[in-house]
Design brief:
By secondary structure, this protein is an all-alpha fold. The chain folds into two domains: 32 residues, no CATH class; 405 residues, no CATH class. The chain is built from 22 helices and two strands. The chain has a two-stranded antiparallel ribbon with strand order 1-2. The longest helix has 34 residues. The relative contact order is 0.10.
């Protein structure tokens, strides 16, 4: 009987594998299109299914800040979007089969995201639908709807499991260091031709360099800047400002530590932080130093350093660095000078003019967009873009004839206003603003409670997540923001905090003793 079952099982396996192998051989032998390549990759990845079933939550968090795209899937979605769908699907299946999934979500955040998703769906319905051009839609820009839905779904996928206490630093490291994948897109001018296939997975940021233009002195390495910002964030999340300057720690020869959580030993920690901070200026973005100055200020207050003897030391170190470095600013690369051009210092005229030109075309765009707010106040414009509207950019070609570019017109057409409030109220209207503010207030309350009442072992991580979140909120409304891109960032911060702390922490209950139930005792004088 047993032999008969084995034979039947073998026949079934061969009956499935042999036709599949013949079909895959046919696909490989012929020129493959995107669909054929997707089938081959899916079948080749089937042996990895056990790893995916066990580690999908870890892989989702690790991919959240990666720039990797899956080019063989229609629409070329980011890896974190696909992992969100996979992780959420596996979580739902596990809940149906085992019923052992305990969501650590917070009701106030959950309902705010549900309301925001409803506003997005209703706006898409009232403005002509999603219309993804990659799937034959009549309009373009529908990928932004998918990106917003994946960001909302990602919150539920991440908070479906609580991160074990002993692995919280590992998860935090994978979350922040995922930005290192952005470096690949910046290496196009130096990448040998045999490795250009990597740019199918990691989009190149400068197509002119990829086509043989080569590196230039003024090239802005955006991917390097974002990767450096991610590493700086991890150092602060792991060690904090007090640990960054911690003179009381023992110096070690090896730069990295793995026991007790991945980290950087002293004195390499401060040296690495300063070196990476210098590298973060390579992109020429003024927003990077401004953002980290704001994060430092928040951490300085939240860690209570203003009440310690470290405060005057940090002040003296900052003054010393400024005195030593500022006289050499004009000898630095132009991208570094552009990053520091917001300071009241002398920089190269080229760097100053580049920064001023960037600010001018943004202001010119805002002057044209702000009067249209009443038109989209109730029902937003949505994210769908009519191809005919894109063709009307030719009307702005006179900018080029006057020596300017048409960045402002292109940004307006793409709804990329370089301004947080405008990127929210124009596409989604006032109800989108209400939903997003609801989410921000609910998230800030959770992060504050986790900072105050969280586990002492998570103290440093909770402190940085609160400082990082508040900085990004202020940055979104006052400096620079893009709702369709920043929603995933906000969701990732609060979801990581909820998953690490198991929800929203609460103060420990205070037990009060009722004097009426105390045992009767004679006074000491009578007992003597």
């Amino acid at each position: 009987m047993t032999n008969a079952l084995v034979i039947i099982r073998s026949l079934i396996i061969y009956g499935l594998c042999l036709p599949l192998a013949i079909y895959l051989g046919y696909l490989v032998a012929n020129p493959m299109d995107r669909m054929s390549f997707a089938v081959v990759v899916t079948v080749a990845a089937l042996p990895l299914l056990p790893i995916l079933l066990k580690w999908h939550h870890l892989l989702l968090i690790a991919s959240w800040n990666m720039s990797m795209v899956l080019f063989f899937i229609q629409g070329s979605p980011y890896l974190w979007m696909v992992m969100t769908a996979i992780s959420l699907l596996l979580t739902i299946l596990q809940q149906i089969l085992k019923r052992d999934v305990v969501f650590a979500g917070v009701p106030s955040i959950t309902w705010s995201l549900v309301f925001l998703a409803f506003v997005i769906v209703l706006t898409a319905k009232l403005t002509g639908g999603i219309g993804i051009a990659a799937f034959g839609g009549a309009s373009i820009g529908g990928k932004r709807y998918v990106q917003l839905f994946c960001a909302i779904a990602g919150y539920f996928a991440i908070t479906a499991y609580r991160i074990p206490k002993e692995r919280s630093l590992l998860y935090a490291a994978l979350y922040f260091l995922g930005t290192l994948s952005m470096i690949i897109g910046s290496l196009a001018p130096w990448m040998p031709g045999g490795l250009h296939f990597l740019f199918a997975l990691f989009p190149v940021e400068n197509m002119a360099a990829l086509s043989g233009g080569g590196p230039t002195e003024n090239m802005r390495l955006s991917g390097v800047t974002m990767a450096a910002a991610g590493v700086l964030s991890f150092i602060l999340a792991r060690h904090g400002m007090k640990g960054l300057f911690g003179g009381g720690e023992r110096w070690r020869f090896l730069p990295l530590q793995f026991r007790g959580g991945f980290g950087i030993n002293q004195p390499w920690r401060l040296l690495a932080f300063l070196a990476i901070a210098w590298i973060s200026l390579a992109g020429g973005y003024r927003s990077i130093p401004i953002m980290f100055i704001m994060i430092f200020f928040c951490l300085f207050l939240f860690e209570g350093l203003h009440r310690t003897s470290l405060a005057p030391i940090l002040l003296l170190v900052g003054i010393l660095l400024a005195v030593v470095s500022l006289p050499f600013v004009q000898k630095m690369p132009l991208t570094v000078q552009r990053s520091l051009s917001f300071l009241p210092i002398e920089v190269s005229p080229l760097a100053k003019n580049s920064a001023e030109h960037s600010s001018q075309w943004r202001i010119r765009m805002w002057e044209e967009v702000i009067p249209t707010i009443p038109q989209y106040l109730i029902v937003g414009k949505g994210y769908g873009i009519d191809p005919r509207e894109a063709e009307m950019n030719s009307a702005f070609s006179d900018y080029k004839s006057r020596g300017n570019d048409d960045d402002a017109s292109n940004a307006m057409t793409a709804l990329d206003f370089h301004n947080g409030p405008l990127s929210l109220i124009i596409p989604l209207g006032i109800f989108g603003v209400i939903g997003f503010l609801w989410f921000l207030f609910a998230s800030a309350k959770v992060l504050i409670n986790n900072y105050r009442y969280g586990d002492p072992e998570h103290r440093q991580l909770n402190t940085f997540l609160l400082a990082y979140f508040l900085t990004k909120v202020l940055f979104f409304f006052a400096v620079f923001g893009s709702f369709q891109n920043d929603l995933a960032l906000f969701v990732g911060i609060v979801a990581l905090s909820v998953s690490v702390n198991g929800g929203a922490c609460k103060p420990a209950p205070v037990t009060r003793v009722n004097p009426a139930h105390l045992p009767f005792r004679l006074p000491k004088a009578l007992r003597a």
